[in-house]
From TrEMBL:
SUPFAM superfamilies: GroES-like, NAD(P)-binding Rossmann-fold domains. Belongs to the zinc-containing alcohol dehydrogenase family. Quinone oxidoreductase subfamily. This is Zinc-type alcohol dehydrogenase-like protein. CDD domains: AL_MDR. It comes from Hyalangium rubrum. Keywords: Metal-binding, NADP, Oxidoreductase, Zinc. The lineage of its organism: Bacteria, Pseudomonadati, Myxococcota, Myxococcia, Myxococcales. Signal peptide: none annotated.
Length: 338
C-alpha cells in the first residue's frame, strides 16, 4: 500500500522530512477495522511529532491522526461496523497513523461518517471534536442538557481547529462564548462558528473582557499556550470556575494562584483513552456518533477551510508548513491517492 512516512525528524522544508513509501497491507485483529482511507487532516500533533530531533527510525513511521474512509475488512471481535461502512476517526498515537491507503483502527474509537459531508469535510472533524467534547463536557463538567445555559466560556484561540468546534459545542449547551482571535479573518471565522463576542489575544484580555461586560468567566478552554496565559487565566476566571488546557508546557505552573478562588484545572488529551485502553474507551465511538448526527442535522458544521490533493509526501509537507505558520483558520484536509 502507499503511505507517507518519516525516517528522520527534520524541518518541514527538507524534502526528506516526509517521504512517499510502499508498505505491506496490514491485517485486522481483535477489534480492528481495516479502513481504506479516502481523506486525512492535519493537526498540531502531526507537526509536533515530526519536529526536528536527534532520532532515526529503523523502519518508516506513519503519522496522521484524522481520517475518513470505508471499512474494507474487520477483526473477529468487531461488532459495531461491517465491510462497506463509511467511517471517520482520530485514532491512537501509539499505533501507526492514518497517512496510508489502508489503516488499522480500533472500532471503539471510530464513528459513522456524517452522510451530509464528503470525506474531506468529515476528516477535518474527529480529533478536534473529541478534544473539545471531552474538555467541555467531561473535564469542565459543563451540562450538555442546558443546566449551565447562560454561563460564560472563554476560548483562547477560537479560530483554530479545536477552538472552531468548541465554540459550536458550547453554544449547543447554551453557553455565552467569548473567543480570542487577532486577525480580521480569524475574528470573522469565530463569529461564523457562533462566538457571541471576539477579543484579541495579542492585547490585554482582562481589559477587553471588562469592556465586553464580562470581567470574569465561568470556564476557560486554552487551545494554544498554557504557560503564556496562566496568569491572566487566573485573573479572569470566576471563583469556583474551571480551566482546561490541551497544550502541554515545559514551564512550571503556579497552581497556588488558583487556590483562593477554588478553581479547578485539568488537562485534556483525547489520546488518553486509546493510549491506555481505558474501560470507557468506547465512549469515543459514542461521541463521534453523536457528532455525526449533529452534523447531519445541521446543528454543527464542518470546520474545513482548505483542501489539498492528492495525499502524498509533497502535499503533506505543504500542509505541515501551513500549520506551522500559525495562520491557519479552521482545518486543512487532503483527499485522494495518486
Amino acid at each position: 500500500m502507499k503511505a507517507v512516512a518519516l525516517k528522520r525528524y527534520l524541518p518541514i522544508a527538507d524534502p526528506e522530512s516526509l517521504l512517499d513509501v510502499e508498505l505491506p497491507d496490514p491485517q485486522p485483529q481483535g477489534h480492528d477495522l481495516l479502513v481504506r482511507v479516502h481523506a486525512v487532516s492535519v493537526n498540531p500533533v502531526d507537526t509536533k511529532v515530526r519536529s526536528p530531533k536527534d532520532k532515526t527510525e529503523s523502519s518508516p513511521r506513519v503519522l496522521g491522526w484524522d481520517a475518513a474512509g470505508v471499512v474494507e475488512a474487520a477483526g473477529p471481535d468487531v461488532t459495531l461496523f461491517r465491510k462497506g461502512d463509511a467511517v471517520f476517526y482520530a485514532g491512537s498515537i501509539t499505533r501507526p497513523g492514518s497517512n496510508s491507503e489502508l489503516h488499522l483502527i480500533d472500532e471503539r474509537i471510530v464513528g459513522p461518517k456524517p452522510r451530509s459531508l464528503d470525506f474531506a469535510q468529515a476528516a477535518a472533524i474527529p480529533l478536534t471534536a473529541l478534544t473539545a467534547h471531552e474538555a467541555l463536557f467531561e473535564r469542565m463538567a459543563i451540562d450538555l442538557g442546558g443546566r449551565h445555559a447562560g454561563r460564560s466560556l472563554l476560548v483562547i484561540n477560537g479560530a483554530g481547529g479545536v477552538g472552531s468546534i468548541a465554540i459550536q459545542l458550547a453554544k449547543l449547551a447554551g453557553l455565552r462564548v467569548i473567543a480570542t482571535a487577532s486577525r480580521p479573518e480569524s475574528q470573522d471565522w469565530c463569529r461564523k462558528m457562533g462566538a457571541d463576542h471576539v477579543i484579541n489575544h495579542k492585547e490585554d484580555l482582562a481589559a477587553q473582557l471588562r469592556a465586553a461586560g464580562t470581567p470574569e468567566v465561568d470556564y476557560i478552554l486554552n487551545t494554544v499556550n498554557t504557560s503564556a496565559y496562566w496568569t491572566v487565566m487566573g485573573d479572569v476566571i470566576k471563583p469556583r470556575g474551571r480551566i482546561s488546557s490541551i497544550v502541554e508546557t515545559k514551564d512550571p505552573l503556579d497552581l497556588g494562584r488558583l487556590m483562593q478562588k477554588s478553581v479547578s484545572f485539568s488537562w485534556e488529551l483525547m489520546f488518553t483513552r486509546p493510549m491506555f485502553g481505558t474501560p470507557d474507551m468506547a465512549e469515543q465511538h459514542q461521541i463521534l456518533k453523536q457528532v455525526s448526527e449533529w452534523l447531519d442535522a445541521g446543528r454543527l458544521r464542518t470546520t474545513l477551510t482548505e483542501k489539498l490533493s492528492p495525499i502524498s509526501a509533497a502535499t503533506l509537507r505543504e500542509a505541515h508548513a501551513k500549520l506551522e505558520s500559525g495562520k491557519m483558520v479552521g482545518k486543512l484536509a487532503l483527499e485522494g491517492w495518486r
